[in-house]
Specification:
Helices cover 21% and strands 25% of the residues. The chain has 528 residues and is an alpha/beta fold. The strands form six sheets. Strands 1, 2, 3, 4, 7, 9 and 13 form a seven-stranded mixed beta sheet that branches. Helix 2 packs parallel to helix 5 and helix 5 packs across helix 6. The protein is elongated, with a radius of gyration of 27 Å.
């Protein structure tokens, strides 16, 4: 009996681990799916595996690789469910074994008066990480939902055939397929990274090149990205979708190398090609190049900023190789508030959750010199009891302004836009005219700021020069404290997501992005 009990316990530990699945496809069963640079997916996968083991703490035995012929549709979905998302129960001791002591003998029920047992606080269940990486063919298609996108992966055994005057896929792994499998995960924080060669560009007959030499072009696939057949059963009513804001998104971070209409670019040499997104993404984390504020925390927002900057520089240098540009995507908005890597030898979980000026830079970027200025009237330092405090923001260029107050105690306030000014029915909040001072509070507010307790902090002005649509967490907020729990996980994450997605980017030249905004700070102090 004792041996049975310990075997069960051992089995529980075997499945409750961080897991990674790497899918690498350089060649396909269907000869019509050709043109990938030789070894591209294999090289990408090797870089990701090294990142997982040497930086992110995954054990080699907990990483599984599906390569070429192994990466069929059924194998991919099966491994996502069984390998990435195994059932993790805190106790797997069968009911008939309950009541056993350490020797395996049944415990006898005590007779007499029962002792009063003090209720203990319920132990928080541990969660584990799941990491899925895909390198091969794929595409983003429009879909109604949270972000209007659906990532589709092309497995090894997918086929392309002519039907109704156009070519159609069958046997793909759709976004709904992925979401259906991931929805079964229990207490798992999931990261999906797709460096998929976007087949929508193949339909336009576009070719791709590396810095070293031109690679073979994909064969024209008319309408390939917008027309395919699902091998799975139709999605039932109420089913989870990758673009549907269901609870699945609370623990999922989705990276895509390129936006719809773009193709993931190839860098490296002709002998050793590597995906531009994958190579820069790995550098951002493995070499900590994305940690611009050097606080040993690399947020997803910092990774996106770094990858976008390098991709934009690449496109400016090789304009002929990326006519459509390459704008990486990060979804959902709350993923911006998550950490891609934390140096646990220097940063505790408590410190990671604390809001400081340095931590704020993980989402909004490092403060920089720009044409934006903040002035406090009367100037700091002030004494408790001082009243009629105002802040004035002046910018040489027009934009959308978010004005924040961050105290040294970690309290965060949004000063503008507010319930009195700056809100917009369409989400384009925080309007600031060029060379026109904006004062907070204005006389029209009917309220004033006063110094009530000794404190230190910073006034922070964030100015986006491109049109930005904010959600209700910013656009409809009143002048009040943002709760610590909401500040990092929701408010700053969604603010960073909005700033990164200017509504005018789609109409700009490919090399005009990434979106740009300025961050300026003004320290203040209130004396006793």
């Amino acid at each position: 009996m004792t041996g049975v009990m310990f075997a069960c316990l051992f089995a529980a530990k075997a499945v409750a681990q961080d897991r990674a699945l790497i899918i690498s496809i350089d060649s396909y069963a269907d000869s019509k799916l050709g043109g990938l640079p030789s070894g591209l997916a294999k090289n990408n996968s090797a870089a990701i595996k090294k990142l997982l083991t040497e930086k992110l703490g995954y054990k080699p035995e907990h990483i599984k690789i599906l390569q070429n012929k192994q990466a069929t549709r059924s194998a991919i979905l099966s491994e996502i469910t069984s390998w990435l998302g195994p059932e993790t129960k805190e106790s797997v001791i069968p009911a008939q074994l309950k009541g056993l002591d350490e020797s395996g003998a049944l415990k006898k029920k005590s007779k007499g008066k029962k002792k009063r047992v003090k209720k203990r606080r319920k132990k928080r269940l541990k969660s584990y990480r799941s990491y899925l990486y895909f390198a091969g063919f794929g595409f983003l298609r429009s879909d109604r939902g949270m972000d209007g996108l659906d990532q589709t992966l092309v497995p090894y055994d997918a086929t392309l055939r002519a039907a109704d005057g156009q070519e159609k896929f069958s046997g793909v792994v759709s976004g709904d397929d992925l979401a259906g499998a991931i929805a079964k995960f229990v207490r798992r924080r999931t990261t999906l990274v797709f460096d998929a060669r976007n087949l929508s560009n193949a339909a336009n007959g576009q070719t791709h090149e590396t810095p070293a030499a031109a690679q073979p072009a994909l064969r024209p696939l008319t309408g390939a990205a917008g027309s395919f057949e699902k091998a799975s059963a139709p999605v039932q009513k109420g089913a989870v979708s990758m673009s549907n804001p269901k609870p699945i998104w609370k623990r999922v971070t989705l990276w895509s190398a390129a936006s719809p209409g773009q193709r993931a670019l190839v860098a490296g040499s002709e002998e050793k090609p590597v995906g531009l997104f994958t190579s820069v993404y790995v550098r951002a984390i493995a070499e900590a190049e994305a940690d611009a504020n050097a606080n040993n925390i690399i947020s997803n927002a910092e990774v996106l900023h770094f990858v976008s900057d390098v991709s934009a520089a690449y496109c400016r240098a090789y304009k002929e190789r990326c006519a459509a540009g390459m704008k990486p995507l990060l979804r959902p908005a709350r993923a911006y508030g998550r950490s891609a890597w934390v140096n646990r030898s220097k940063v505790s979980r408590r410190k990671e959750r604390s809001l400081t000026l340095t931590r704020l830079a993980d989402f909004l970027g490092v403060p920089e010199k720009s044409g934006v200025s903040i002035r406090q009237d009367p100037p700091s330092p002030l004494k408790v009891g001082a009243g009629n405090i105002r802040y004035e923001v002046l910018s040489a260029s027009a934009g959308r302004l978010i004005l924040l107050n961050l105290t040294d105690r970690g309290e965060l306030f949004q000063l503008y836009p507010n319930q009195y000014a700056g809100q917009d029915d369409n989400g384009f909040a925080g309007k600031l005219e060029a060379n026109t001072p904006l004062r907070v509070p204005e006389d029209s507010y009917g309220v004033s700021f006063s110094a009530t307790v000794p404190a230190k902090g910073h006034i922070i002005a964030v100015l986006a020069r491109e049109p930005v649509r904010f959600d209700a967490s910013v656009n409809a907020r009143t002048i009040s404290s943002v709760s610590p729990r909401e500040a990092i996980g929701v408010y700053l994450a969604e603010l960073a997501a909005a700033l990164s997605h200017s509504t005018r980017l789609d109409s700009l030249p490919a090399t005009s992005w990434p979106a740009r905004w300025s961050v300026v700070t003004l320290p203040y102090e209130i004396l006793p």
